[in-house]
């Protein structure tokens, strides 16, 4: 074995694939029973509908190198992501656009009129002096749109009143003064034709790659543990950086999600893949309906059943899956201290969203793994 990789998410598998192609012998361990990290998906057994186990994953990128690379392992459908939101029992398109504004104000404003209206409403606060997230939100889009579409949704995401959240949590609230409600602005977008797991398995499918599942780096009863391997060979570590150092500089904080899955006896539950719930009286933030990610599978999917998943958001404990970095000032100080410790850890390369404590989209995790391979590991 020439290289040990801890974690089989997109970051770890990209390194593994590049190293194997260059003739290195690689072992990839993952503490979960499956490969793929948070991008893992599987068919719901009763319906055969592909479910993204750790929340809906939409692939999109404007990075030509990454796009060329991922297409070696999978073809992509022409799926285009769009999100709607339910506010007081009325459905509006997101991100906030001219359609949302005109529906909300029961008007037929032109782009210029809508822009003038939002600017006038936003005059209540100055974004630069906003004391908290609420003032910042109002300063960016005005009170009516903020209260309808941002306030309660944000409170549910953070389980905190936005008046008590720092203004920096939002840097901008994009408003589109046309009817374009395409969610992503990237050059390429789509879903893997035969699913995420087939894609991830193809990346790992090489004689030089040995994958060991249900294998925890910190479990000293298995041979690929930290104690036995650090200093013996190069290691790419994509688990939580604070856990690696036994929380010596404190715990970095994360939000997690809880998912409630249900098979509903109708062919179509909500008519679209993601419906947000903007108001406080609905406890979940959104509902995913997985069949709508793959309209091209209509022939294969049942017409009398559908799979939905309600999503709830909360702060993570050590036992929960870490999903989104909270990034408090204390977290940022802790991260700097961990980066210093990481520099001193000879032969261990920290990568991926957990190893660097940052939210990374899939294309970013893949792009940053390709850079690590080229710059630090390929020589
Ligand atoms: P991960 O996928 O988290 O992989 C890390 C792996 O390390 C895990 O499998 C874990 O089990 C393993 N590990 C941790 N500790 C140990 C240990 N001690 N021993 C062994 N193994 C260990 N990206 C998009 O581009 N589009 C989206 O729509 C999108 N939606 C998302 C929705 C949610 C809810 C979340 C959380 C993420 C989403 N992402 C999305 C991001 C995407 O999941 C990440 O980019 C991707 O998972 C990053 O890969 P990674 O390899 O860095 O981390
Ligand atoms: Na979102």
Choose one word for the global shape. Answer: globular
User: Oligomerization state of this entry?
Assistant: single chain
Question: Biggest β-sheet: count, sense, barrel?
Answer: 7 strands, mixed
Q: What bound compounds does this protein have? A: flavin-adenine dinucleotide, sodium ion
Number of strands: 16
Relevant CATH superfamily of the domain at 3-40 and 60-75 and 191-249 and 325-377? NAD(P)-binding Rossmann-like Domain
Major sheet: order of its strands? Answer: 7-6-12-13-14-11-15
**Can you tell me the CATH class of the domain at 3-40 and 60-75 and 191-249 and 325-377?**
Alpha Beta
Distance between the termini: 17 Å
Helix content: 25-40%
Helix/strand-derived category reads: alpha/beta
Unreliable parts:
none
User: What's the tally of helices?
Assistant: 12
CATH architecture of the domain at 3-40 and 60-75 and 191-249 and 325-377: 3-Layer(aba) Sandwich
């Amino acid at each position: 074995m020439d290289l040990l990789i801890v974690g089989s998410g997109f970051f770890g598998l990209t390194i593994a694939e590049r190293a194997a192609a260059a003739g290195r012998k690689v072992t990839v361990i993952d503490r979960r029973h499956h490969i793929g990290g948070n991008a893992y998906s599987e068919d719901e057994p009763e319906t055969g509908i592909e479910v993204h186990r750790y929340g809906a994953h939409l692939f999109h990128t404007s990075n030509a190198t990454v796009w060329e690379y991922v297409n070696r392992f999978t073809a992509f459908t022409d799926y285009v992501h769009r999100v709607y939101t339910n506010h007081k029992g009325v459905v509006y398109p997101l991100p906030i656009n001219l359609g949302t504004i005109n529906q909300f104000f029961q008007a037929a404003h032109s782009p210029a009129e809508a822009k003038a209206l939002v600017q006038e409403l936003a005059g209540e606060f100055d974004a630069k002096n906003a004391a908290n997230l609420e003032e910042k939100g109002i300063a960016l889009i005005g009170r009516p749109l903020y209260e309808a579409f941002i306030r309660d949704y944000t409170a549910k995401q953070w389980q905190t009143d936005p008046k008590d959240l720092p203004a920096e949590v939002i840097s901008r609230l994009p408003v589109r003064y046309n009817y374009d409600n395409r969610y992503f602005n990237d050059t390429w977008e789509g879903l893997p034709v035969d699913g995420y797991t087939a894609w991830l398995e193809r990346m790992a499918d090489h004689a030089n790659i040995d994958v060991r599942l249900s294998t925890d780096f910190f479990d000293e009863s298995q041979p690929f543990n930290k104690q036995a391997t650090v200093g013996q060979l190069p290691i790419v570590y994509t688990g939580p950086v604070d856990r690696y150092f036994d929380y010596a500089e404190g715990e970095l904080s994360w939000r997690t999600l809880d998912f409630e899955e249900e098979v509903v006896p109708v062919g179509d539950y909500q008519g679209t893949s993601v419906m947000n719930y903007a108001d406080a009286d609905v406890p979940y933030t959104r509902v995913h309906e997985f069949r709508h990610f793959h309209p091209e599978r209509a022939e294969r999917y049942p017409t009398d059943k559908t799979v939905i998943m309600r999503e709830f958001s909360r702060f993570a404990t050590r036992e929960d899956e870490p999903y989104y970095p909270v990034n408090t000032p204390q977290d940022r100080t802790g991260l700097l201290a961990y980066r210093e410790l990481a520099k001193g850890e000879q032969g261990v390369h920290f990568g991926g969203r957990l190893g660097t404590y940052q939210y990374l989209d899939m294309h970013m995790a893949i792009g940053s793994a390709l850079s690590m391979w080229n710059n630090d590991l390929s020589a």
